[in-house]
Amino acid sequence: MSQGASYAAAGVDIEAGDRAVELMKEWVAKATRPEVVGGLGGFAGLFDATALTGYRRPLLATSTDGVGTKVAIAQKLDKHDTIGFDLVGMVVDDLVVCGAEPLFMTDYICTGKVVPETIAQIVKGIAEACVEAGTALVGGETAEHPGLLEADEYDVAGAATGVVEADELIGAERVRAGDVILAMASSGLHSNGYSLVRHVFFDRAGWTLEREVPELGGTLGETLLTPTRVYAKHCLELIQELNLERDGDEKPLHAMSHITGGGFAANLARVIPDDLTVRIDRSTWTPAPIFDLVADLGEVARPEIEKTLNMGIGMVAVLTPAEADRAIAFLADRDVPAWVCGEVSPSGESTGVALHGNYAR
């Protein structure tokens, strides 16, 4: 007589999931804040909102995102402890652009087969990035999807909540003609454009992840898996340094933009009013070699690559020129290279964000 159906026979291993939770507890415990109530394992993460009573008018901000096809690189290399930085960076750095402090985050991991050690490594990276961002990891979900994903495949997503004082909100309404654009260097490709990148290197050029590439100073795989730089804590500190105790329009840091999918110009345009225009000077920076490799190997036209990849800039601030040098020095002390790359002007014949010149070599 055949045995009856079971969850395990259908491909779901509950015991493996429990083991993964045990392995990740050590890392989640490090990604906490004083406001977190309880520990891992409940049905919901709890966060004491008493601290919000100290705000005059607290605005809650929320963001959600994933990593995209960069997870395929981590899976091929069997290296899973850095992809969490990509996830956290994509989520919390969307919050900080309005001035919000990210308070807590949750994650979601789905996989074809739960391998406890792999799940624990993914969560380790998420937790370490949360520590770097100053946010708490209050919970998450791991789901096994046999038949939908292969045994060694997974995807990750996350969501975070933050808070900002209403009168300290930054954004397009504060931007003025005469402001300058302060660029903050990316650590590489970050987490956007990997469908194009993978198509160029693997489908067109036939390269492997193990290929040694002198221009990159190592293998292709090592460069493609470089973690996203997490700007949240540094940007919050910069906002506090420049805007604290300044009233209304006297606050010198006016807006920020997280450079993700869509590229530099499109993301910066989201915080520029319609009656203003921005001129960006490409000669103020040199994109890392990986960007040239993608363009050259794939014969990717400049407009196409610039609307797909960050081209070396992961975050920008829009501020008064008088504070630019101070901001650059402040970020340099936190190992974030920054420079002035453009300026804001009244709209004339041109509108939006325009890039001029050639990249420095």
Automatic annotation (TrEMBL):
Residues 176-351 form the PurM-like C-terminal domain. One of its GO terms (biological process) is adenine biosynthetic process. This is Phosphoribosylformylglycinamidine cyclo-ligase. Pathway: Purine metabolism; IMP biosynthesis via de novo pathway; 5-amino-1-(5-phospho-D-ribosyl)imidazole from N(2)-formyl-N(1)-(5-phospho-D-ribosyl)glycinamide: step 2/2. Residues 60-164 form the PurM-like N-terminal domain. Its main location: cytoplasm. It catalyses: 2-formamido-N(1)-(5-O-phospho-beta-D-ribosyl)acetamidine + ATP = 5-amino-1-(5-phospho-beta-D-ribosyl)imidazole + ADP + phosphate + H(+). NCBIfam families: purM. It is found in: Cytoplasm. InterPro entries: PurM-like_C_dom (IPR010918), PurM-like_C_sf (IPR036676), PurM-like_N (IPR016188), PurM-like_N_sf (IPR036921), PurM_cligase (IPR004733). It holds the Pfam family AIRS. Keywords: ATP-binding, Cytoplasm, Ligase, Nucleotide-binding, Purine biosynthesis. Its EC number is 6.3.3.1.
